[in-house]
Specification:
The complex is a heterotrimer of chains A (404), B (256) and C (340).
Chain A (H helix, E strand, L loop, with lengths): L6 H18 L3 H7 L6 H7 L18 H14 L1 H21 L2 H12 L5 E4 L15 E5 L2 E12 L6 E7 L11 E7 L5 E5 L11 E12 L3 E2 L5 H37 L1 E2 L2 E2 L4 H30 L4 H26 L10 H11 L6 H12 L17 H5 L3
Parallel strand pairs in A: 1-4
Antiparallel strand pairs in A: 2-3, 3-7, 4-5, 5-8, 6-7, 9-10
Helix pairs in contact in A: 1-4, 4-5, 4-7, 4-8, 5-6, 5-7, 7-8, 7-9, 7-10, 8-9, 9-10, 9-11
Chain B lengths: L1 E6 L1 E3 L6 E3 L2 E3 L5 E3 L1 H17 L2 E7 L6 H9 L3 E5 L9 H15 L4 E5 L10 H9 L3 E11 L2 E8 L2 E8 L2 E5 L11 H9 L4 E2 L1 H4 L8 E7 L9 E2 L5 H14 L4
Parallel strand pairs in B: 1-6, 1-8, 6-7, 7-13, 8-12, 9-12
Antiparallel strand pairs in B: 2-5, 3-4, 9-10, 10-11
Chain C lengths: L2 E4 L2 E2 L2 E2 L1 H10 L5 E7 L3 H9 L4 E6 L8 H15 L3 E5 L2 H13 L4 E5 L1 E5 L2 E8 L4 E7 L4 E5 L16 E4 L12 E6 L12 E5 L17 H23 L2 E4 L1 H5 L20 E5 L5 H7 L4 E6 L12 E4 L2 H15 L3
Parallel strand pairs in C: 1-4, 1-6, 4-5, 5-12, 6-11, 7-11, 14-15, 14-16, 16-17, 17-18
Antiparallel strand pairs in C: 2-3, 8-9, 9-10
Helix pairs in contact in C: 3-4, 5-8
The chains are: A alpha+beta (404), B alpha/beta (256), C alpha/beta (340).
C-alpha cells in the first residue's frame, strides 16, 4: 500500500498553494470584511484550469484525477472557504453530476463550458422550507409538450447570482407512490426568462463567498435539458451530494492545517510566565489534537478520492471524511482562537475567520446528523447499495487525457 | 527559434540556512527552481509564443537535482538537459559558465540564451555575462522589456538611473529582472508532462570538455555575528542637534 | 600591489561607490583609476582628489554610452598590457558586469559584492554575504589579477582633497565602433516607488503620527476627520524622510485601521513581514505583532515620546522626543549629508 503522493499530485498541490499565497491571501481579509467575493477569484480559478481540474480533456477539462481535486480543495480552503465552495458547486454538484448522468449531447453542450471555465455552474436543491428532507421538495416541474415549466423558490444556493448554469432538482410527479420517485433533475440556463435571483448577506462565515436565492416563475426548460429519466431526480441528487461532499471533506482538512500552522507560529512567539506558550502543556494538548485530526481528515479524504479513482461507490467513505473533517475543523479553529488569546478574538489574525467559515460545513452538504444516519445505515446493514443506472466511471488517464 | 533557459536549483528562499560543521545546511526545506530563473523561463516561453520555436532548459547540478527542471517543464518548456558530473561540485562561476557555454554550443543553432539575474544561494550575478563572453555573444543583461524584430532583439535594461534600451543581432544572452512580469504557474498538462519526462543527462565527457579549473575558493563560511541589541538613546539640546548626531550614527552603520 | 580602480559613472556623474573603492584600495598600494566614456576628463580631476595616483583615461565617442562588450574589451586590453595585481570595481550594474567579463578575458576570477577584505601576503581574502545575507562567506582567488567588486557603502568614502593631482595617461579603446555588436537606443525612467518587501530602507509611521498638537485642522471637519487630517500631515513628514533616503513607507496596524494609510503599507505579522537594512519607526509603540513584522531589520531606529515604549527594546538607536520636530530635522540632516 503506497501512501505517498505522486509527483503529479505534489506539483498540483504546490501550484494551487502558490496561487492562493500570491493572489488570494493578500486580499482575503479585506473582502471577507466587506462581505463581498474577491472580484477576480472565480475568473482566475477558471483561467488556471482549477475549475476544470478533474474533467476529461475531451469535455474541456484538465484531465487530472479525483485525488488532485481533493488536494486542490484542501489548498483552496486553507486560504479561504469561499474558494472551495466554488469548487463544491461548480465541480462537485453540477460538473461531476453531468459527467456521471449526462448524455453525450448534454456533456458537449453543458459540461464543456463548465469544465473549460467559460461558464460557472451551481447546484440547486435546497428550499426555504426544505434542506435535509430532499424528497419533500416543493418546487415543481410540469411537463408541457417538449418542455417543463418550473415554479418555486430555491434558497441557500452558492454562486446563485454568479453562475450561468444550474443543476436543479424539482418535483415533476406530485402523485408518485413514493415522494422520492417524483423528482427529476434539469440543467437550467440561469438567464432563462422567469428566473430571478439575489444575494443573501449577513452569514456568520464564508463572507467572501456568494450565497443567494433563485426564484422560478413559469420558467420553460426544454426536455433536452432533463438529466436522466423522469423520476431519477432523487438518485441524481444523491450522486451530486457525494461529489460535493468529497470537496467539503478535503477542504475542511485545509482548515485544520491552516489552524494548526497559525497556532504553531503564534505559540512559538508569544511568551507567558517566562517562556513561549508552546512550552506550556495545555497549549501542546491543543496543538497535538489539531495535528492528529489533520492526519485523520487527510487520510479519510484521500481514501475516498482513491475509491473515486477506482470507480467504486464511496458514499460511506465520503460520509466519514465529511463528518469527521468538518467537525474537527471547527474544533481546530476554536482551539486556534483560544491559543491566540484576545488576538484570536479579533480579525487581525485569520483564526476567527477559520472558525466562522468552519461552522457552515457542519450544516451544509449533508448535515452531521444526516451523515450519522447514513453511517448507521451502513453499519447496521440496513443500507444496501443498489447499482445506479449511471455510475461514475473509474479514472482512466488515457480516456481523461486524450482528446478523442 | 531555438531558445535556451539556464536554470539552477537552490534551497527555498524561506529556508533557514545555517552553517553546521563548516557546511551550509537548510534543514528539510525543499529545493526549488531559483526564483529569478522562473522569470527567465517565462521570458523564453513568451518569446516562443510570439515567434515560434522551442524552449530547452539547461541545469547544472547533481543527479537528483530535477525539481528546477520539472518546474520549468511544467511551465511549458519543451525539453530539458541536466548536466551532472562529480567534477562539477564546488566550481566557481567562470567554470560553470564554461560548462554552460559548451552545452549551448553543443545544442547548436541557439538564438537566445536566457538567465535569471542571479541565483539566490551564491548571489553573484556573474554567470550570465560570463557565459555570453565565452560564447562571444552580446550580453543584454537585467532586461525588463524584450522585443524581437526579425533578427534584431531589443531589451530595456534596468539600471541604477532608470532604463537603458540596447539592441543587438541574434544570437544573444539575456538575463531577467522582476520588472519583466510575473512568471506563469505550471499548467496541469505541463505538470503531467513534467512528471513523465525523461531528462537526458550530459556529463563533461559528453560535452567534450575537460574539468574547468576553479580559481575561487571558499576557506570559510560563517553564520553572521549575532548582535545583542543595546539601544543608544540620542539626546541633545535641540532637534537639529539630535538629528545631526542620529544621522551620523545611521550613516556609520553603512545601511544607506 | 598595483591596484586598479574602475570609476563607474553615468553621463559624467561618478557613482560615489567608485570613490569608496579608491579608499579601500589605498591600503593595498598605488591606485590607478580607470575612466571610460566620452568628454569625461573632469572625472580624472575628481579621481585624483579622492586619492588616485594615476588615471588611465579612455575618452571616445564609442564609449559615450555603456555597452558591455566595448567597456569590458577596453578594460581587458589595458589589463593584459599592464598586469595589475588587483582590479577593484564598485558593485553597480556596470561594475559587476565588467568584472564578470574581464575575468573571462583575463582567465581569472571575480569576488563580487564584498563587504570586507583583508590582505594575507599577496592574497586578498574577502568577506561577502550569500543566501541574501543569511550567511557570510570568505573567498580568495588563486589567480591574477584579483578582480573584486565592493558593495556600496560597505567601505568609507575618502574625503576629497582639493587640488590633489597625479599622472594622467590617455589610452585608445580596444574596439572600434564597427566592431561593437550592440547599439544603445535610448534611456527612460522606470516607475518610481519602492515596494515594501524589496526595500532596503523603510520609514514607518504609527498612531503617534497623528498627535501633532501644533496643527489646526481646517474648519468643517468632525473629530474623526480631523484626526485623519492630522495623521495625513504627520505622514507627509514620514514620506519626506523616505524620499530623501530612497525608502519605502510603512505603517503600523493602528495607523492603517484608523484610516491614515492604505493596508498595502501595513508592516506586521498580519501585514507585510520586512527585513530591510534600516527601519525607522516613528510614533510606533512596538506592539508584538508589529515587531514580528520588522524585528529582523539590520538597524532599527525608534522615535517616540514615550520612553517606556517597547520599540526601544529592539531599537539600535532611539530618540525620546517630539517626532514632529525630530523628523523634519532628520530629513534636513540627511539631505545635507547625502548631497540631495
Amino acid at each position: 500500500m503506497d501512501f505517498s503522493l505522486s509527483e503529479e499530485h505534489d506539483m498540483t498541490r504546490r501550484m494551487v498553494q502558490n496561487f492562493t499565497q500570491k493572489e488570494i491571501l493578500p486580499v482575503i481579509k479585506e473582502y471577507d470584511r466587506k462581505q463581498e467575493p474577491i472580484p477576480f477569484a472565480l475568473h482566475r480559478l477558471g483561467e488556471l484550469g482549477i475549475l476544470g481540474i478533474c474533467f476529461p480533456v475531451r469535455y474541456g477539462g484538465q484531465g487530472m484525477d479525483f485525488i488532485s481535486l481533493g488536494l486542490a480543495c484542501e489548498e483552496l480552503e486553507a486560504a479561504d472557504t469561499s474558494l472551495r465552495v466554488a469548487m463544491s458547486v461548480h465541480v462537485g454538484l453540477s460538473g461531476l453530476t453531468l459527467l456521471q448522468w449526462g448524455t453525450e449531447e448534454q456533456k458537449k453542450n453543458f459540461l464543456l463550458p463548465l469544465a473549460s471555465g467559460k461558464k460557472l455552474g451551481c447546484g440547486v436543491f435546497t428550499e426555504p422550507g426544505m434542506g435535509s428532507d430532499i424528497s419533500s421538495m416543493q418546487t415543481s416541474g410540469k411537463k408541457d409538450g417538449n418542455s417543463y415549466i418550473l415554479n418555486g423558490e430555491k434558497m441557500w444556493i452558492s454562486l446563485a447570482s454568479k453562475a450561468d448554469l444550474a443543476l436543479v432538482t424539482v418535483r415533476t410527479n406530485p402523485s408518485s407512490s413514493r415522494p422520492s420517485n417524483g423528482l427529476s433533475t434539469f440543467i437550467v440556463d440561469l438567464k432563462t426568462p422567469g428566473i430571478t435571483r439575489g444575494d443573501i448577506h449577513g452569514k456568520l462565515g464564508v463572507r467572501a463567498g456568494s450565497t443567494g436565492w433563485i426564484n422560478f416563475q413559469d420558467v420553460r426548460v426544454p426536455i433536452e435539458n432533463r438529466i436522466g429519466e423522469e423520476g431519477e431526480g432523487f438518485k441524481i441528487t444523491m450522486s451530486a451530494f457525494d461529489h460535493g461532499r468529497y470537496t467539503v471533506a478535503s477542504g475542511a482538512a485545509g482548515i485544520i492545517r491552516a489552524a494548526l500552522e497559525a497556532s504553531v507560529r503564534y505559540a512559538k512567539q508569544r511568551t507567558a510566565f517566562g517562556k513561549p506558550i508552546a512550552s506550556h502543556q495545555l497549549i501542546q494538548e491543543k496543538i497535538a489534537r489539531m495535528s492528529q485530526d489533520y492526519e485523520i481528515a487527510r487520510l479519510l479524504y484521500l481514501r475516498a478520492g482513491w475509491l473515486k479513482n477506482q470507480g467504486v461507490r464511496n458514499t460511506r467513505e465520503t460520509s466519514f471524511a465529511k463528518k469527521f473533517a468538518t467537525e474537527a475543523s471547527f474544533r481546530a479553529a476554536d482551539d486556534a482562537v483560544q491559543i491566540h488569546g484576545a488576538y484570536g478574538y479579533s480579525d487581525e489574525f485569520d483564526v476567527e475567520r477559520y472558525l466562522r467559515n468552519a461552522r457552515g460545513a457542519i450544516i451544509y452538504e449533508g448535515s452531521s446528523e444526516i451523515q450519522t444516519l447514513i453511517q448507521a445505515g451502513y453499519a447496521l446493514g440496513e443500507r444496501q447499495e443498489k447499482p445506479l443506472r449511471c455510475e461514475m466511471p473509474p479514472y482512466d488517464p488515457a480516456y481523461w487525457q486524450n482528446n478523442q | 527559434m531555438k531558445i535556451v533557459a539556464c536554470i539552477k536549483q537552490v534551497p527555498d528562499s524561506a529556508a533557514k540556512v545555517v552553517v553546521e560543521n563548516g557546511r551550509v545546511s537548510w534543514g528539510d526545506a525543499p529545493l526549488v527552481i531559483n526564483p529569478w530563473d522562473e522569470f527567465s523561463v517565462e521570458a523564453a516561453l513568451q518569446l516562443k509564443e510570439k515567434h515560434g520555436g522551442t524552449v530547452t532548459v539547461i541545469s547544472v547540478g547533481g543527479e537528483t537535482d530535477k525539481e528546477a527542471i520539472k518546474h520549468a517543464l511544467a511551465m511549458g518548456a519543451d525539453d530539458a538537459i541536466l548536466i551532472t558530473d562529480p567534477a562539477l561540485t564546488g566550481l566557481d562561476t567562470q567554470a560553470i559558465a564554461q560548462v554552460l557555454a559548451s552545452a549551448i554550443q553543443k545544442i547548436g543553432g541557439v538564438d537566445v540564451a536566457f538567465f535569471g539575474r542571479q541565483a539566490i544561494d551564491n548571489d553573484s550575478g556573474l554567470t550570465p555575462s560570463q557565459t555570453a563572453r565565452l560564447l562571444n555573444w552580446p550580453a543584454l543583461t537585467l532586461a525588463a522589456v524584450i522585443t524581437l524584430d526579425g533578427t534584431r532583439i531589443k531589451v530595456e535594461r534596468s539600471i541604477e538611473e532608470g532604463r537603458q534600451a540596447v539592441s543587438a543581432d541574434l544570437p544573444v544572452v539575456i538575463s531577467l529582472v522582476k520588472d519583466y512580469g510575473e512568471p506563469r504557474y505550471p499548467s496541469f498538462m505541463g505538470i503531467r508532462k513534467a512528471a513523465r519526462a525523461e531528462v537526458p543527462v550530459w556529463s563533461l565527457a559528453s560535452l567534450g570538455i575537460a574539468i574547468p579549473a576553479s580559481v575561487i575558493s571558499w576557506p570559510d563560511i560563517m553564520n553572521p555575528p549575532s548582535r545583542e541589541v543595546v539601544c543608544e538613546i540620542i539626546s541633545g539640546n535641540s532637534p537639529d542637534e539630535i538629528a545631526s548626531v542620529l544621522a551620523s550614527k545611521i550613516l556609520a552603520e553603512k545601511v544607506l | 600591489m598595483k591596484t586598479w580602480v574602475y570609476v563607474d559613472h553615468f553621463k559624467g556623474q561618478a557613482l560615489p561607490a567608485s570613490w569608496e573603492a579608491i579608499g579601500a584600495g589605498k591600503n593595498l598600494g598605488t591606485i590607478t583609476a580607470l575612466i571610460f566614456g566620452q568628454n569625461i576628463e573632469s572625472l580624472a580631476k575628481e579621481a585624483f582628489e579622492h586619492g588616485a595616483d594615476e588615471v588611465l583615461l579612455v575618452d571616445d565617442a564609442s564609449l559615450a554610452d555603456y555597452r558591455a562588450e566595448a567597456f569590458c574589451a577596453s578594460l581587458s586590453k589595458l589589463a593584459m598590457g599592464a598586469s595589475p595585481d588587483v582590479i577593484l570595481l564598485p558593485t553597480t550594474t556596470r561594475g559587476r558586469e565588467m568584472a564578470a567579463m574581464a575575468a573571462i578575458d583575463l582567465k581569472t576570477g571575480v569576488m563580487v559584492d564584498i563587504t570586507a577584505m583583508e590582505l594575507q601576503g599577496d592574497r586578498i581574502v574577502v568577506t561577502r554575504p550569500i543566501y541574501a545575507g543569511k550567511l557570510l562567506s570568505k573567498e580568495t582567488c588563486s589567480s591574477k589579477p584579483q578582480i573584486i567588486t565592493l558593495r556600496g557603502r560597505a567601505f568609507p568614502k575618502p574625503a576629497p582633497q582639493a587640488g590633489r593631482t597625479g599622472t594622467l595617461t590617455k589610452a585608445t579603446p580596444a574596439l572600434g565602433e564597427a566592431e561593437i555588436k550592440s547599439k544603445v537606443e535610448g534611456y527612460s525612467t522606470s516607475e518610481s516607488g519602492v515596494s515594501l518587501i524589496d526595500a532596503n530602507v523603510i520609514v514607518s509611521g504609527g498612531r503617534g503620527v497623528s498627535n501633532n498638537p501644533a496643527l489646526t485642522p481646517p474648519a468643517g471637519l468632525d473629530e474623526k476627520q480631523a484626526e485623519i487630517w492630522r495623521a495625513q500631515q504627520g505622514f507627509i513628514l514620514v514620506k519626506d524622510l523616505a524620499t530623501v533616503l530612497g525608502a519605502a513607507v510603512g505603517a503600523s496596524r493602528a495607523a492603517v485601521d484608523a484610516g491614515y494609510v492604505p493596508y498595502s503599507h501595513q508592516v506586521g505579522q498580519t501585514g507585510k513581514v520586512v527585513s530591510p537594512d534600516l527601519y525607522i519607526a516613528n510614533g510606533i509603540s512596538g506592539a508584538i505583532q508589529h515587531l514580528a513584522g520588522m524585528r529582523t531589520s539590520k538597524v532599527i531606529v525608534a522615535i517616540n515620546k514615550d520612553a517606556d515604549a517597547p520599540i526601544f527594546k529592539v531599537a539600535r538607536y532611539g530618540v525620546v522626543g517630539d517626532l514632529f520636530q525630530i523628523l523634519p530635522a532628520l530629513t534636513a540632516a540627511f539631505k545635507q549629508r547625502l548631497g540631495k
